[in-house]
Amino acid sequence: MKQIRQNGFALILVIVVMALISVVVFLLTEDANTVVFQSDIAYLEAVEQNLIASSLAWAKQNVKNENKEIFPKNIELDVSAMNIRDAILSVTIGAPRDNEVQVEVSASYSRGRRTLRHNDKYKIQISP
Predict the structure, then answer these.
(1) 83 φψ region: left (φ > 0), alpha (ψ -120 to 50), beta (else)
(2) Residues 67-106: pLDDT tens digits?
(3) How far apart, in whole angstroms, are the C-alpha atoms of residue 119 and residue 123?
(4) What CATH number should be reported for the domain holding residue 40?
(5) How many independent structural domains does the chain possess?
(6) What average pLDDT does range 4-20 have in this prediction?
(7) What is the phi/psi pair of residue 78, to 5°?
(8) How many CB atoms within 10 Å of residue 47?
């Protein structure tokens, strides 16, 4: 009879320990999901800044070199070398006016199931 009680106690102890371990694993999994979510957000913010900076640098370089009569124009830039999955970058350069050009940047990029879009206008100063 004593042997059965000891085996029963050991079984109950093992079940309680497994329940505690499962609670700890659940809590760690929730924290890991939060970390993954936050890292995805940080990645997408960095991608957005890189795409905007690249498009503005491209626009500034090409506004200097282009004939003023071909504006406004819309260009879709190749971003395949940036290794950003499903990224699209479009730049619309307006007609120069008063040593200033208005540039509209449209970008779309994704990570996992999140797809973000950016569309904003910027002004670039040009020298005469």
Answers:
(1) left
(2) 555 667 888 988 888 888 788 899 998 877 888 888 999 9
(3) 14
(4) 2.20.25.110
(5) 1
(6) 84
(7) -85, 115
(8) 21
